[in-house]
Fold this protein.
Amino acid sequence: MDLSRRAALGAALAAATGPASAQTRWPDRPVTLMVGYGAGGATDIIARTLAERMQPLLGQPVVVQNVTGAGGTIASDRTAKAAPDGYAILLIANAHAVAPGLYARLPYDTLGDFAPVFFAGHSANVLVVPAASPDRDLAGLAARGRAARQPLQTGSAALAGWQPAHQIMKEALGLRLEHVPYRSGPQGQADLIAGRLDFMVSNVLEVAGHVQAGRLRALAVTSPTRSPLLPEVPSFAELGVAALQADSWFGVIAPRAAPAAALDRLHAAFAQVAAMPEVAARLQGLGLIPAPMSRAEWGSFYTAQVEQWSAVPRRANVRIE
């Protein structure tokens, strides 16, 4: 075979096998798992618990990056605009589904710009007050709030201090509330413990330790049944506020055009890590309840959640310009 024919054959083989070879090499550098909130919050803890065990499965580390601000929407925008190569992914929570109904303009399309990767699970939210609060139960908080001349002070790390649970409490209990935004749940909880807020609705993962240590008092959980972390705390449904059943959920998404093969591999690795006995025990000990889903099932659930929860701020006529 002469040199020119050999070169032509080599070029043809390279063209035929190049994409497949590149596919098998993925990943050939670290994967970035973004989190839209500060260190120490529920989303951050879940991300780090999963990420630290991914390298043996992928051959590359998964590095958690906190991209805070604007209720997680900065991280969502960065993910939507990242190169669609599987190296930039995002762990989201419920606030991501609320954002399109709350913000007048988002720089990304919540339904159109993302692809599903992995559903991590769900956990209860819990209404907590300072240990020194006069409110011993939900009825006491509601009565004090309705009688007070000033709105009750509350806060959250999500969506500029606004969250659907607050709106449902206003509708169901007739409360006036003033929201304080925080970059992370622990920042708000520090103010709550210090008595600078009247209450918060926080993920049980973040506050169970404070409740058990006596720094906060839990009045109700948002899950349909009681949380195994706080079994003595009634659900809102038990207390007659059936509308406030809204567990937190957590899942991983990627830019819409990311290669399916890369996302399938990520899904399989996340699922394998989540099933490790020590990881499952740690996450469940933090209050996360696993709910295994395929990528397609997670995508359908994601779409339904965006449609459901983005309607809450629209119903309340709450809008952030």
Summary: Residues 70 and 160 are 6 Å apart (CA to CA).
